Structure formats: structure tokens, C-alpha cells
Amino acid sequence: MHEAVARRAGLSGTDHKYLGFLIEKGQMTAGELSTLTGLTTGAVTGLIDRFEKKNLVKRRFAQDDRRKVIIEPNTEIILSLLVPLYEEFRSKSEELMASFSNEEIKVIETYFSKAIDIMTETTHKLNGKQS
């Protein structure tokens, strides 16, 4: 589904995912984006170039160190691009969640919380990092 949304928005699935990181975390350096995504700095440069051409982000130099490039998401444009593509999904998801009792929702939350912990641990192991 995310790949289909991305294509409709004129993005690749991975670019859509990385744009989500920028929306979630806000402005960051290119190096921070590289660390967050696992992309090389060269790949991040290409990613930023693609986003900048679509006016989804803006580059600016850090005031304290002009070697650092700060990536600023253009949240208004990003949201205007993506929110309409998720409206029906969001509405149906809200209806689905409303069909569960509070007790059932707590079970679902527990499952997802623990599943995320397992995915994080697995990712760290695959990347050769201690969790």
C-alpha cells in the first residue's frame, strides 16, 4: 500500500519512507539522515536532491559549522501531497479501531509494542550493533 501511495505521489517507496522520517523527526543534518536511514552520505545527497526538486525539503547550512547541511522538510507541501492519499485508509482504520473494546485495544497495543522491540533488536543485530 505504501508503495502505491508513493507512486501516486510521484515518489519511490523508499523515498516515501525517508520523507516520513523527516516529517516525524523534523529538520536534521544530512549526516543524521544518513545514520537514521542507513544510506551512505552519497545516497543521502541524491535523496535530498530528488526531494529538493519537488520542493519537499530545503537545504541550509548550519550557522555554527557551514560544512553541515541542515535538511528542512517543507511540511505544508509534504502533507498536502500525502494526506489526501491516506484519507480513506485513515477513515477505515478509525472505524476498525472503534470496533474493539478498550481491553482488546490494550492487547493490540501490547502486541505492537513488543513486535517493534523485536524488530529493533533484529535490526541492530543485522547491522552489527548491540541493542
- Give the amount of beta strand, in percent: 5-15%
- Sheet bearing the most strands, described? 3 strands, antiparallel
Q: Identify the CATH class of the largest domain.
A: Mainly Alpha
Distance between the termini: 30 Å
For this structure, the CATH topology of the largest domain is Arc Repressor Mutant, subunit A
- Counting structural domains, the number is 2
Strand and helix order: HHEHHEEHH
Give the name of the CATH architecture of the largest domain.
Orthogonal Bundle
Overall geometry: globular
| Total number of helices | 6
Which secondary-structure class do the elements indicate? Answer: mainly alpha
* pLDDT averaged over residues: 92
**How many beta-strand runs?**
3
User: What is the C-alpha radius of gyration, as a whole number of Å?
Assistant: 18 Å
Q: Give the CATH H-level superfamily of the largest domain.
A: Winged helix-like DNA-binding domain superfamily/Winged helix DNA-binding domain
Percent of residues in helices = 55-70%
Task: Note poorly predicted spans.
Answer: none
Largest sheet strand order: 1-3-2
Oligomer description:
single chain
Protein name: DNA-binding transcriptional regulator, MarR family
Domain HTH marR-type: 1-117
Keywords: DNA-binding
GO molecular function: DNA binding; DNA-binding transcription factor activity
Key descriptive features of the protein:
about 130 residues, mainly alpha, Arc Repressor Mutant, subunit A, 2 domains, 3-stranded antiparallel sheet, 6 helices, 3 strands
